[in-house]
Amino acid sequence: MSEIKHNWTTQEILNIYKKPMMELLYEAATIHRLHHDPNTVQVSTLLSIKTGGCSEDCGYCPQAARYHTNVEGNDLMTVQHVKAQALRAKSGGSSRVCMGAAWRNVKDGEEFDQVLEMVRTINKLDMEVCCTLGMVTENQAKRLAEAGLYAYNHNLDSSEDYYKKVISTRGFEDRLKTIDNVRKTNVTVCSGGIIGMGEKVEDRAGMLVALSTLNPQPESTPINALVAVEGTPLEDQQPIEIWDMIRMVATTRIVMPETQVRLSAGRTQMTREGQALCFFAGANSIFAGDKLLTTPNPEVSEDLKMFETLGLNPQKPFTKKGQPQTVEAADSKIEALGEKPKWTRPEHKIERNELAKQNRKLSQ
Ligand code: SF4
Asked: Which of this chain's residues are annotated to bind [4Fe-4S] cluster (predicted)?
């Protein structure tokens, strides 16, 4: 088994990314087979437990309140609703539920307590539970861990340089700090990014440097292709070519051999053949369900057909790491601290974000 390298440089990663396609595929597939069962793919369901109305200015996101998109906001889902959705996901073959809330950061209080109850409920269904709730403090990460959280998602989105051209309301260093806070618990880390936002290949490599030099590397890395949504600052971005996705997946596999590489947003734009090449290149996780938070995703039945055609099997829950224990709220040993952490707000001007904000005002 190859060793995990934690000192990748941008140039080394670019050299991999730019290899002739057949060599890249062969190398990635070989490494994939050393670390994973090539015929097993994890199936996760992404559930938007609180949609829209977000205060941030992420240029790709239709949930940002400042842009004019068709996303209808809703309040935090009830625990019962989440349980029903999780059971549905389980019967559709998902082994993991990832709950997303359009928040800048977690705030202690009733809503967070409700999310902790959702975590307990899903863990008791013997499914892996992941949350993506924005920035978290160490204390909040510990409370999530105590409730039975399996993974926390916090994407780096792009290279540190390009991140600043997409988001101005939260800093890259806060992303790393959140990952660090999660690492102080036994919760696994899910972190990746988006390609097709107008970044250069150097930025794609830069993002992989930031992820692969984390020690340990993330257990899971989603690779999203931008879904350009009308009304967002990135609405005019052209879809990336499938070859970019395959190169990105293969390169991620090579630099992070043990990580589960997740085909995420943008799968509806990919053919089955394209997805098959991504699996060959080392992708071993997908999101199931007809929606990914707010953007379209292939139907579960289409994925099942694809699995059958390719002879793929869904990964069983807790294959990579044992099931965490759930501590009930009444038995919790970790108190909420009611912290008010000073997450950064760089607030530099991003022209296209400003323009999209103005367009919203004009449309009102
Ligand atoms: S990506 Fe998350 S933090 Fe950014 S605007 Fe969307 S919901 Fe808010």
From this structure: 54, 58, 61
